[in-house]
Structures are given as structure tokens and as C-alpha cells.
Amino acid sequence: MNLTLRPYQPSDAVVITSWVKSEYLMRKWCADRYERYPVTPDDMNFYYERYIDGKHTCALTMVDGDNIVGYITLRIPSDDTTERRLGFVIVDDARRGCGLGKALVSMAVKYAFEALGATKVSLGVFENNPSAIGCYESAGFIRVPKAEKECYECFGEIWNCIEMELLRSVH
């Protein structure tokens, strides 16, 4: 594999949205950020134009050669510019289980630390998403307590989030 991260391009949305095969998977990916299923390329690009400013939030596409294989966002969650928060983490569903998720997360963390000067990268993941939790743990993230539990109502259930973070090691 020849994996690289590059800035998201609106034409990427056609491929990325094709990976979301059910509303259940969509909610695990984006919680309530998109109103309806299926998410269309136009929906994704509207969200991008509205919320991804390139300063406080950036969107990155992972490619393997010429093939789009992953997507992730990094945002500043508060006034603390030393923290970046991962979001919208998704990889090509046809290539799951091949280490793409760990590679995508690891590359985004490296970018946050080295290019953006972050000292902490955080994320929230639903408790009912064990494969994502395992992916984040394999990339070095640890579970941390959160003062206020984040949760969403999905399909008549309450989905709780686990807070995870990775601190930049200083050597």
C-alpha cells in the first residue's frame, strides 16, 4: 500500500458516501450531523462548505495511489488551539480489516502533532462500535473520563460516547 493524506476535494464525496451502506452505519459514523439517510455527495459537500474552514477544521482524504480509501476531519474543539479532535472517521468498507483505519488515524494524529502543533488529539466513539474502539486503542488512544457524558438518541435508543485521547509524547 502507498497511503498518503491529502486535503479533501469535493469530488471525493462520491466515493466516500458510497461506503455508508445503512442508516445504522451512518449514525455510527456521523451521529446526528447529517439529517437523513442516505448521505449524498451534495449533502457531504454542503456540510464541508458550511463547517470546514481550513483553520479550525480541516478534512483529509487518505489515498492508496489514485484510490480514495479513507476520510477524516480534525477540528479545534474549544479555545485551546493545542487540541485537535478527530471526527467523521471512515474507510473503504470493501477493505475493512486490512489496517486502513489504524493507518488513517495514525496519519491524522501525526499531522495534528507535527503540522498543526497539537499536544493532544481527542475523539468520541459510540460504546456500540467495538471495531472502532479497537482501532483507536491500537493507534495509541486511551479512554478518559468526561465530566459530562455525551450521548445521542438513535433508533429509539440512547447511544453513549466513550471519550478517548492521545497525548503527544515529549522527547
Structural account:
This protein is an alpha+beta fold and about 170 residues long. The protein has helices spanning about 15-20, 25-30, 40-50, 100-115, 130-140, and strands spanning about 5, 55-65, 65-75, 85-90, 120-125, 140-145, 150-155, 155-165. It is built from five helices and eight strands; from the N terminus they run E-H-H-H-E-E-E-H-E-H-E-E-E. Strands 1, 2, 3, 4, 5, 6, 7 and 8 form an eight-stranded mixed β-sheet that branches.
Terminus-to-terminus distance: 30 Å
Query: How is the quaternary structure best described?
Result: single chain
The biggest beta sheet reads:
8 strands, mixed
Give the overall form.
globular
The average pLDDT value, as a whole number, equals: 95
Poorly predicted runs:
none
**Pattern of helices and strands:** EHHHEEEHEHEEE
Question: What is this entry, summarized?
Answer:
29% of the residues lie in helices and 32% in strands. It is globular and about 40 Å long.
Task: Give a quick set of tags describing it.
eight-stranded mixed β-sheet; alpha+beta; 171 residues; 8 strands
How would the blueprint of this fold be written?
Layout (H helix, E strand, L loop, with lengths): L2 E5 L5 H6 L4 H8 L10 H11 L5 E8 L2 E9 L7 E9 L8 H15 L5 E7 L3 H9 L3 E2 L7 E4 L2 E11 L4
